[in-house]
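Input sequence (325 aa), recorded before submission:
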Amino acid sequence: MAILNTRELKARGAAVAGQFRRETVRLVAVYCGVIALLSLGSNGLNLYLDSQIGNTGGLGGLGLRSVLQTIQQALTYVNMFFGPFWSAGFLLAMLGMVRGGEPRLDHLTGGFRRFGRILGGLAFEFLVVIALSMAAINLASIVFALTPRGQEFAAMMEPLMADPNFLTPEGIINPELMPMEALFGAVLPMLAITLVILAPVFIWLAYGFRMVTYLLVERPISGVRAHFESLRLMRGHKWQLLKLDLRFWWYHLLGAVIAAVGYLDVILGMLGIQVGVDPMVMFFGTLGAYYVLTMALCLWKKCEVDAAYVLAFEQIAYPEPVEVE
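Predicted structure, token format:
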């Protein structure tokens, strides 16, 4: 098993990125610029479509309203699926750079050329998350039922559920018969128990699946097989990769802070803070600031950081030197 020297990986990543500084600047500019233009453009188009949908009232505008809503849904799917494939293409460029090749702009479309296997990997991860979440919720409900508060809640619910009006015709709990304080008193402990169960499982899986994208862009294997191969490769390496993450703690922290800037309008609203700025201006202002700051961070360090992770993948997947085309 390869032993990762995280200090050396960090230094080598910086050295490799430095050799192709001009190429990486161009690559990052296109990579971040396309994401920003797609997001800002789709949000702007969505707002325009909303205004048009609002003007199509009545039966006469039913057909046009349906078309406009379909376009909105299509935009949502484009934004949802574009990111993973675009990021896979950037990773392909980093793999080529680490292996001595020049990172090229045509690498960015490499994820779309591997559409089937990457989509299969995303679908598999989605199913795993759903299955684990449902299992955790069921387990949390059992644990909660064994607690004194759970037993009190069950005793309170028994006569309520016997009432024929407890559920509305739509199958929803009748709020007039269900005390909201009691409901929240059950939901919050169950949510806490679910998070306690899921947190370590998801952290373990996150590191176990860490090599999936590398495998999908490099090898002609299915998305499902890539996950099991990643689990195999990561045996004994999860702690080492965590240490590499900690080497770049400042980079990840800056990313989190920048993400908070992007959601600043939502955060201020949750805190009840009112600002004397038009909501539309606030939304696009924070979104634009997010992409400007993201571009600056990526131009500064993204290629160095990604190169270090690619070097870690190389050592884990190929512990002995091999010739790679």
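Checked by second reader. The CA atoms of residues 145 and 152 lie 9 Å apart.
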